[in-house]
Amino acid sequence: MTLKVSDIGEKELVRYIIANSRNITPDDTAITKFNSTNLISTCDMLIQSRHFPHNMSYFDMGFKAVTVNVSDLAAMGAEPLGFLLAIALPKDLKIDDFKQIIDGVLKACEYYHVPLIGGDTNEASEIIITGTALGLTDKPLMKDTYNMGDLIAVTGNLGLAALGFNLNTLDNVYVKKALKPKARIKEGLILRDYATSATDITDGLASELYEIKKDGYGFMIHEELLNISDEYKSISSQLGLDYLDLILHVGEDFELLFTISKENFDKLPIDCMVIGEVTDTDVVELTLENGFVERVKNKGYEHYVSE
User: Fold this and answer.
1) Distance (Å, rounded) from C-alpha 208 to C-alpha 225?
2) Model pTM score
3) How many Cα atoms are found within 13 Å in the side-chain-facing hemisphere of 158?
């Protein structure tokens, strides 16, 4: 049988590319020695039908294109240096809509203090925005440099965007998180001096935990530490959704997931939330509020995989 890309999924395709390149790290960015520091570069492509909710404005599309790239810099503890924009547009797109996209890009660049330094344009059947972000750091944060006994923490509540994607009303924190995500660049710059490893949560907590897992190490997450409100549980139930599934397996949080020693966590100058610890079980587990422990499935958003 001839395999298709849908048979293996995005992450396996990326692993193939990394395995056959001498210059790519297994993190979401490239690290290049540059003078006495490190140049961090990352690239993300967003396709209208796959990455932009139907109720997202053109302005927010542009803003998000910058955010997803800057979020990768944040996870590495890198100071933004420059942003390149490649955009493909349908030929019948209104000029005012195009201007809104570019306004979103420029406003995001201003927000993250990163200049737009170049790019390209082309034609496509739908809006496709590809961003490339460059940054600098002396101490890049890697994904798998944690130690046994480290705490697992995040920079904010998880699952808000996942719930927001299922809501139609606009004036609530869930929809705002879904349509107007923000990268945690300031937190990343601080965490590089405290954390032992870090990544950003785009494909869901479970998927990211499996992505950073190394042999002989496991993760225990505690439901009671996830700060899940009664309102969140109630809305999820009304929609017929499993609240833990939203938090673990959907993504688009753009929060930083990091490991840190207990001693350093007490010294952190920013508010973060401990959700678990690194163990020696070699599995990813969740302790439920009722005390039962269950294995967490390796599932999250992934391109190419058939639904």
Assistant:
1) 18
2) 0.91
3) 32
